[in-house]
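Recap from last week: sequence in, structure out.
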Amino acid sequence: MLNICIFHEENRMPFSRWECLLHSIVSIVPFIFLFYYTFKDRFRFSISRTLLILVPFTLVQISIQFAAIYGYLRWIGFADILSPALYVLLLLIVVRDHIGRVLFALLVACNFSNLAVSAAKYVEGLFSVSDALKRYHWTFSFWLLIFECAILLFLWKVMFKAFRITDLPDSFTDTENLYDSNSQRYLPEDRSLWRYLWFVPATFYLIWMYMFYQGNEPAVRKLMHLHYLLVVVAVDFGSLFIYGLIIQLIRDQDEKLELRSENYQLSLQALQYQYINDRIEQTRRMRHDLRHFLSTTEMLANAGEWEQLHRFISETKESSDLGEPLFFCKNIAVNAVLSYYYPKMKSCGIASDIHVDIPEELGVTSSDLSILLSNLTENAVEACSHQAATERSLSIHAAMRGENVLMLTVSNSYEIEPQKNA
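Predicted structure tokens:
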């Protein structure tokens, strides 16, 4: 599949077309199953549509192999580059994943497919040198299928099974900032490590390309040497140790970011609880002052000082913060963010208009939603705080439109015309 493995010997074709077709199928199908089980939770399309894309792609791959075998490619090694490139294109079309992660999985499979090819040709040569020199004799496809299945099962057990469920969380790789309530600053973003990690299997793939094509000895004979097979085994299993370290690195990073997310959620809840406690304390003070308030209002009413009574009630209402909402909506994360920024708006003299109706359970993670709302609100408050001559105002409106659409609008007044980043 991933390694066309062309054994160039003049223009002799000591094998039939059906044997070439058999080799093409054997070298492709096992790896399709490997990538299916690895990425099946990340398909963009249904299984039927994915198969419709896969069928013409498989025909193109078989055509590339025939073109290489029958000399239609000026450099036969070009097939070993074109074939993986087409697999990258296929995976990017049908799989919703980071391109670095796709490349990592594909190149690892490429490197171990080379081991299967080397082992199959060497064992075939042990039984019949004449059949092994025919390049695509059916016995080669037979041994190739056996070694591919064994190697792929081994890879799935020791690596790809863990690789399938190991990845950096999208909520941290796709967002720009994360707010730290303790230091009251934004933490730098965590970019995905996959954009760099795929260089590791790519390096081993280039090593194999050099080993396979350097020298004047035909590749079909080179693969029949025991020392060549031992070198390939050493390189592949040495690389497997490095891949294991990479998977462990990703796991550690995953746990770190998960803990960071939990701490962030706890900080949001702490903000909400603090806001509620402040409101409870304000209510307690109001109850303590209620007797004085009633006495004063009764005295002003009996004296007919209606204007002074109205002013007294307004001042008392303003100083008591009775207009501050206790809850903004059912969503805890949104409540925590708005509870944090609402006092800031008031201290900055910003007239706020907040109407949010967001359910407790939403199709987006709490961290994503809170980070988005925090960024928008923080920018709006900052823009308003720079106003000197005009009235400051900020409105936040949010509501569900149907089951899967959240409409969120944050608008604010400003004096300095906003400019786009260059």
